[in-house]
What we know:
15 strands, Quinone Oxidoreductase, Chain A, domain 1, Rossmann fold, 10 helices, 339 residues, alpha/beta, six-stranded parallel β-sheet, RNA-binding, zinc, Zinc-ADH_QOR/CCCR, Zinc-type alcohol dehydrogenase-like protein
Amino acid sequence: xxxxxxxxxxxxxxxxxxxxxxxxxxxxxxxxxxxxxxxxxxxxxxxxxxxxxxxxxxxxxxxxxxxxxxxxxxxxxxxxxxxxxxxxxxxxxxxxxxxxxxxxxxxxxxxxxxxxxxxxxxxxxxxxxxxxxxxxxxxxxxxxxxxxxxxxxxxxxxxxxxxxxxxxxxxxxxxxxxxxxxxxxxxxxxxxxxxxxxxxxxxxxxxxxxxxxxxxxxxxxxxxxxxxxxxxxxxxxxxxxxxxxxxxxxxxxxxxxxxxxxxxxxxxxxxxxxxxxxxxxxxxxxxxxxxxxxxxxxxxxxxxxxxxxxxxxxxxxxxxxxxxxxxxxxxxxxxxxxx
Length: 339
């Protein structure tokens, strides 16, 4: 089967940083689905893994954690899907990635593809939608009943990125007042178009901008960019008994004492946790992806695909990684069609 991978960690402008491969087609066992991959998208985790995890001459690394495709075969213990089903998913970081023509994934972290989306449009969503849903509801503790969120505010740092593009939609759909950060007119407009009620500039102090909007504090903060850089400002602007969630690893220890007087909460979100440790609630990712699909098909949410490349090959994937490394992407970059 066709695949894209690498042997050595190299800068993305090096042609060997991602190369076209021919690998043996895997077989489904246990609760695994064998999926014929129709489209993939790229995420910052792809860039990070490529930068430090080397393969070998005999076993190249195949990465990628966002895919949409068709179930080719199912393992003997599968109960949720059958061959021919259209699916979308993010996969597991401790298994080979989905940058391949056929891919194995545990059915418990797979959802049915939204009927109203193409494979490319669907591939933009899984990792970011899982991250946003878990961050907002499981980690921050916002309610899934919109009426219970009336009057509550959430500050989303990085509102126009991959996670931000779906987090703004989910948070606003469930009744939260969304304040998103953006620094360029086009990224600010993207965030507004995807559910943000207000925009502040993350290059300027948060508190004065929030005050100008009429907010002394915010109830929730979802940090999708540079945890260290914004830590003091997050501590300053979080409401008493509020909650902060970040998805970005801190480079230095965080001073949690800044949250003490407010009895505020800080929590991490890492969407691979359930799959990595096969937690008892692993099936929740299957359920939440199905919920996202229902919301998409009912017109309440929409895809965050912003850039589409074709076909799926090493040259286009290197281009996609370079776009992410530029730090200026809006929405998601998607590739479709192995040729």
